Fold:
Amino acid sequence: MIKEVFDLYNRHWFHILMWSFLLIVPITTFSFIGILYVFDSEGIHNPAYLAGWLLVLNFVLGIPPFLKLVMKDELDESMSVVEGLQFFLKQFGFVLLTSVAIYVIGLIGIYLLFIPSILALLFLLIFPFFSEKNSVKEVIVETFRKMKDENISLIGDLFIIVGLNLVIWTSVMMFMEQFDNNIMAFLLIRIMMNIIILPILYIYLTLRYRKNDVIQTIR
Structure:
């Protein structure tokens, strides 16, 4: 599948580059500045919870155009950069509000032996990949069906995504310790990391959890 990911990346590098600069850059900037704000604000209790939500948004908000790109590619159809941006705007409100609701459920689950929290994290990982469905009910049903069918794989992918981000970010932090603390430098490095990593993860996860749906559509 890794080869398939990079083959698709190479075929659509222009679209991916444009969406990276038009979507991933501002989303990452908002998330980064928001995290700095909540930790510096004395009026916010438990800033780590809000910072965690901003990190979740940093990941899920940019998924829709890449999802549609992969689905179109699997059907041998083309799409424009503008079409991807329109799809992003169409899905933005739903992805945002659903992320808030599920994240709150996950926080409540911390006090319930973490089981709801784990389920909420798994849901947050893949529900945007079903966001193009016709109704909220269909999105929820399809997401839980995939969670049931791919539970072990989902947990593995969740650990890979979280672990990858932790390893890379820790490495960057250790590297930056050699220099003066510069918020702009940290932001630029974070942006570059996300431009490189997120499109690959989006493509991989779409192929991983939606490719069979496309195959059934073709048949």
